[in-house]
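Chapter review: from sequence to fold.
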Amino acid sequence: MKKYSWNLFALVLGILIGGVACSGVREETPAESLSESAADTPTTVPPTSTTIPTDTPTQLPPTATNTPVTPTETPAPTPVPPTPTPAAILEPGVHEQILTLEDGEELEYAISIPPGYTGEEMTPLVVSLSAGLEDDGNVILDPLLDIAFIEKSLVDLGAIIVTPYPKNPGSAFNPTYANPPSEMAVLTVMDHVIDLYNIDPEKTLLTGRAHGAKGAWYIAARNQDRFEAAIMNFGSPAQDMDTYEWTIPLYVIHTTLPDPEGFAGNEPVGFDLGRGVDELVQQLLEMEYEVELVTYDKYPADVFAHRTGLQEALPWLLEVWARNEGG
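The token string follows.
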């Protein structure tokens, strides 16, 4: 009995002593235990995996670059050259003009605008080469005089008349228009007039008297596509005129009288003005070119003969132009 009592007493005493010891120890919560464990253990972040559906296109973020952004500059406007002021349309009357080319070269000419010209209807164009006046071997040009001559001779034509200056007036030994520079000047002025005025392309005429007739032969032969007819009035032809294939009608006014100065090419004295008119015309007729020769018992220096010859050529000219219109 005593033995079991002692044992029971010892058991109770042990329990009491253990309870006191346990009352001094605080119980840790799972979170606190985890916190302390995490403090001692390096944190490892598991990799994050993103699952992209196979039926959805992959959207990639834009790639950033380090290229500096240059501000956009508005380009300066291209300078536009000023538009040249067009040449003025002249009033009816006679005018002296200067055409300045791009290279600065100046071409002088005289022009006559017929009364009543408005530009509404096409107008014939007569290109007249100046006769020139002999003064001690030199040729003096007076295009205004030639304009007046043509106006009086072809008053019923109602045409614009232009007389370009040649590039080398020269002398009787150096023909005025029968050379390439003068040819260029004549054609350039002609083109300028055509650009400005309402010209009928089927009614163009090249004519010249005396020294101008020689130039008319020369320029007509080399530019037959520019003129519908040519009238040579009391002047010697240029050389080699029989070597051209003439496609335009020619009207040649000539004298039957001997010319002591060789002006008309009959009896050249002291210098050669080219082949005689009679011989050349006869050869062209034999080649079946359209040439009409009209002669007068007048000396080539007779201005009234020049006017009469041109006036009487007017019906021929109108017939040629009418034929062009019809065919």
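Two observations follow directly from the output. The chain has a mean pLDDT of 74. Strands lie at 93-100, 106-113, 123-129, 133-135, 138-140, 160-164, 199-209, 229-233, 250-255, 291-296.
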